[in-house]
Amino acid sequence: MEAKEKKKTGGLAGVVAGRSAICTVGTGHGLNYRGYDIYDLAKNATFEEVSYLLTKGALPTQSELEIYKKELIQARALPDALKVVLRTLPKNAHPMDIMRTGCSTLGCLEPEADNFSDQGAKITRLMGIFPSILLYWHHYHVNGKEIDTNSSQDTIGGYFLEKLHNKQPSELWIKAMHVSLILYAEHEFNASTFVARIGASTLSDIYSAITAAIGVLRGPLHGGANEAAMELISEYKSVHEATRGIYEKLENKAKIMGFGHRVYVSNDPRNIVIKEWSRKLADDVGNSTIFPISEIIEKIMWDEKKLFPNLDFYSASTYHFMGIPTAYFTPIFVMSRTAGWAAHVVEQRGDNKLIRPNSEYIGPENRAYVDIKNR
Ligand SMILES: CC(=O)SCCNC(=O)CCNC(=O)[C@H](O)C(C)(C)COP(=O)(O)OP(=O)(O)OC[C@H]1O[C@@H](n2cnc3c(N)ncnc32)[C@H](O)[C@@H]1OP(=O)(O)O
Ligand SMILES: O=C([O-])CC(=O)C(=O)O
């Protein structure tokens, strides 16, 4: 059954806030990155091909890809001053705050040129270093060890898994990471990307734009929903418990994280892909509860509210099956979405106009100033 389209108001819903040649979302073109169908990309490409496509504008040739991957590998190295900051940040900090601070710190240590002539190199640097930032901080505080950023893995997903678990990941898990990173890489004028574009529109540097975007992604109405979804799923030990629990939450008018979307009306096209990967990894690790629990939540949400899972919902269990701590789910989103944010920064700079809308004033008028002694 189709969900009934209800006109959304407020929050700039439905407002076309600019032009872009990077991605189509809910515009009748399907979900495409630079004209390529997301399903083709998720099935056939590696994340590095897709991040090249987004940040440089075209799919790479084999030799372009090899060079790009080498650059990404070199970009993993952590400057000593950044290591000091990561060691100093508290163990109980939110990992998204670590990502945000790591990005901002790198901007102090390796600033972008005022004329942006090195923007391409800065983008590659950020894409390469984000997993190192998170996992250096993680291992230092959890295991008292400093990680070596050298690795046998030549992809961002493989490197992340190898450094997290300290062992070679399986090909299946590496493929799951590619798919997930591809699906998360870009989504037009979502809240965090829009913020990155606003940053670029003031002619600020790329670190400022991406630091701001990370802060915006952290919220549970946006990227933080994948962590919130896992917390929800983990509340239940069986399908029976989940059924009772979700009905109870709906009765109490609770928001169920990982469901609904600002633009999509009856389904998020990315869900079908990530759901299949969640099912595959559940089989791989022999977990027979989490996937059926997720499916019953999906069914109840549709039956009762006509709400569908967005990308965050089954991404949560997909990551969980790979032994990734829940608090690192949104940082993985950062590792991927940096490609999209960066593409938008470059596009905004290419045809810039300061983004500065108006507000409608609804406050009081004509008030007489009252001296401080008389207030
Ligand atoms: C990768 C991503 O960032 S995808 C988005 C991730 N975020 C989430 O999963 C958070 C949960 N979802 C939501 O909060 C919303 O669906 C959003 C923020 C994604 C979209 O919000 P909006 O476009 O503003 O829709 P809005 O919040 O007005 O929802 C419309 C109605 O559906 C309800 N609704 C929407 N999502 C949910 C949900 N997940 N659980 C319960 N009810 C919901 C709202 O309460 C509202 O009901 P009402 O009309 O009776 O007040
Ligand atoms: O488009 C949105 O509003 C949120 C989203 O799905 C994304 O950023 O991937």
From TrEMBL:
SUPFAM superfamilies per record: Citrate synthase
Keyword Kinase annotated: no
Reactions catalysed: propanoyl-CoA + oxaloacetate + H2O = (2S,3S)-2-methylcitrate + CoA + H(+); oxaloacetate + acetyl-CoA + H2O = citrate + CoA + H(+)
GO CC term (a single one): cytoplasm
Spans through the membrane: none
The protein's annotated pathway: Carbohydrate metabolism; tricarboxylic acid cycle; isocitrate from oxaloacetate: step 1/2
GO function term, MF aspect, one: 2-methylcitrate synthase activity
The protein's name in its UniProt record: Citrate synthase
Database matches in Pfam families: Citrate_synt
Entry's family note: Belongs to the citrate synthase family.
Top-level taxon of origin: Bacteria
Keyword Cell division: no
Active site: 261, 312
Coiled coil: none
Keywords for this protein: Acyltransferase, Transferase, Tricarboxylic acid cycle
Listed GO biological process terms: carbohydrate metabolic process; propionate metabolic process, methylcitrate cycle; tricarboxylic acid cycle
